[in-house]
Specification:
With 135 residues, the chain is an all-alpha fold. It has helices at residues 8-33, 38-43, 47-70, 74-98, 104-109, 113-132. Helix 3 (47-70) runs parallel beside helix 6 (113-132) and helix 4 packs across helix 6 (113-132).
Length: 135
């Protein structure tokens, strides 16, 4: 049975499944952090929310990509991937902090696409920095 886990398709399916579960948890936590309902806003056609949320999804997946590439155990991969998510959330708060004249959540909720795009770019850009630093 031990050799079963070493088949590439089984290993890939395992990582895929775990990352999907971690992504669901991450997006639920992101929903708690924001002052608007992501999925209701997206359903209503709010492109700014879609950009911000898409940036988080892409950022989280990119961090997990680096984590999978760097580690041999599933548990270590999960740990570094979720730590990367925490750093992405901190970056979101930092974005709010360094732009005191802009209420980021309020602007994104109002479909300010410029703010949504910057949020997207911050998430994706920093995911490369976070991923590159995973030991």
């Amino acid at each position: 049975m031990d050799s079963f886990w070493h088949y590439p398709i089984v290993e890939m399916t395992g990582y895929y499944t775990v990352v999907i579960l971690c992504l669901i948890v991450s997006m639920a936590l992101f929903e708690v952090v924001t002052k608007y309902n992501n999925w209701q806003q997206i359903k209503a056609g709010n492109v700014a929310v879609s950009l911000a949320t898409g940036g988080k999804i892409l950022g989280i997946c990119n961090v997990f990509r680096y984590s999978i590439e760097s580690h041999s155990t599933l548990l270590t991969t999960i740990g570094w991937g979720m730590f990367g998510f925490v750093l992405l959330i901190l970056a979101y708060f930092l974005f709010e902090f360094v732009t005191p004249t802009i209420d980021v959540d309020k602007e994104i909720a109002k479909d300010n696409r410029a703010v949504g795009f910057i949020s997207f770019t911050i998430s994706v850009g920093l995911s490369f920095v976070i991923g590159a630093n995973i030991p």
